[in-house]
Each structure stands twice: as structure tokens, then as C-alpha cells.
Amino acid sequence: MTANDSAYLPFMKMHGLGNDFVVVDERGITPRVDAAVAVAIADRNRGVGFDQLAVLSETPDADVHLTFWNSDGSQSAACGNATRCIARHLMEETGKTALTITTDRGALQARDAGDGRTSVNMGQPQLAWDEIPLAHEMNTLELPIEGAPTATGMGNPHCTFFVDDAEAVDLAAMGAALEHHPLYPQRTNVQFASLIGPDHMRMRVWERGVGITLASGSSSCATAVAAARRGLTGRDVTIDLDGGRLQISWRDDGVWMTGPTAHVFDGVWRL
């Protein structure tokens, strides 16, 4: 079997804080991943299972281009934890300590943060209603939804609720309903966050097209931005997720996310 054997698809399984990914390297080979392949691999009983599938492809404008598939076969422009995992893999592959990675979100900068951690600049948040996007013009700081959540775009749409206790929320029921709220024409990721200390939050997440996940990088960025906009925190925030901890820093050049990554195993999918 070779990388160009059309019957087989080599992949890596990776995760960032339990937010797990299948990563397919299509650099130099004929693309083979489509919606049907993504859905088949996503099946946790009959396939491999993932929260997102990421495809690496060549681009003249950066070290690599990434395309993201959700487990339901839809696509996403951004996936922060997968971007960090792949950045770490490419740094180990090339010996570089800084990379430029393009996605449908745009060009993202990644760098080695030391101690096995990786930082990615997820770009500037989208705060205007039509950039997120929402269905019509409104104040994105407090949406006309019970609980007055904040809307943020990070290349994908987010809806963040600030609650007294994130642990007490029925995430499965509320996340499933809110993902399809009519104010979000492209559906939305849903977060429930509570303040547990100065610039320190506990957050749980429902991802559109996926469901409950142990962590989400773009959701963490959106929550940190929303908390800073509402005066709950500063711009440097620690976020505790079900799978672990991320550091988020909203700076002049964008929202930087820093945390650990893991390469679990390599495998081959028979098409």
C-alpha cells in the first residue's frame, strides 16, 4: 500500500483536551475526502469516530491549507483545537517553531509555546450581526433569547450564555435546541460559561453538527471575547473545559489560544 493507493486512506487520530480529530494529509495526492467519507469515518461504532475531520492540502500562500468536516458531513471554516494539533505535527515534521496555516477563516499564525504547548492566533472576532451571521440586525452583546446570550463569530457562529453554574445546565437538551435557533441561519455552536475566579471560567460546549464535545477551541475563544465585552473578565482568560484547560488572550492582532495537543495513533481507512 502507498499513499496514492486509491483503495486506502491513511490518517492520524489526534486530540486537544479530548476534542478529537481524524487528520488526513492530501498534500501531493488526489483528494478523496467528501461528505460521505467524512460521515462514514465519523461513526464511533462502525468507523473511527471524531468531533471534526481535518484535511491538509498544499497551498502556495502558507505552510498548509486546512479544510474541516463535522461528523454530520457539513463543513466548518474554523476548528481551533484541530489547528493546534496539526500545527504541532507540522512543527515536529519540519523543525519550525512558527507556521502560517490557511483555512476558510483566513490565514492563521501558529507558534511553539513551550512545554509541549501550541499557540494559534484564531484571528479577530466577528462582532457585527451580519458577519457572525445572524438573521437580521440586532445587538450582538445581548440577543433576544431567554438568558440574553452573546453572539460572536470566530469563522463559525457562537452563542454564549453566562450562568451561575455551567455544571447544572442540561447541555444535551439546550444545546440541541439552540443550535437550530432561527436567529442563526447557519446554525450555531452553543456555550454555557460561569465565572469561577478572576479571569477564570468554567465552560461547556455543544458544537453544531457534532453535539457535546469535551473541548472546543473556537468556542473557548468566543466565550473569552464575549466575557471581556460584557465586563466579566479581562482579555486574558483561563477556561476550564470538560477535557482540560486552555489559555485565551484577545490581543490587538487577534485571539490567541494556547494549550496541549496529543497524537493518539496512525491508521488506514479502506474506502
Q: State the fourth-level CATH superfamily of the largest domain.
A: Diaminopimelate Epimerase, Chain A, domain 1
Integer-rounded radius of gyration: 18 Å
First-residue to last-residue Cα separation = 13 Å
Corresponding CATH architecture of the largest domain: Roll
Specify the number of helices.
4
Low-confidence stretches: none
User: What about the largest sheet?
Assistant: 17 strands, mixed
The ordered H/E elements are EEHEEEHEEEEEHEEEHEEEE
SS strand fraction: 35-45%
Q: Mean pLDDT, as a whole number?
A: 96
| Fraction in helix | 10-25%
Q: What is the CATH topology classification name of the largest domain? A: Diaminopimelate Epimerase, Chain A, domain 1
3D architecture notes:
Helix content is 17%, strand content 41%. It has 2 domains: 8-122 and 259-270, Diaminopimelate Epimerase, Chain A, domain 1, CATH 3.10.310.10; 150-252, Diaminopimelate Epimerase, Chain A, domain 1. The protein is α+β, with helices and mostly antiparallel strands. The protein has a 17-stranded mixed beta sheet that branches. The longest helix is centred in the N-terminal third of the chain and has 15 residues, at 80-94. A hairpin with a 3-residue loop joins strand 12 (200-207) and strand 13 (211-213). The mean pLDDT is 96. It contains 4 helices and 17 strands.
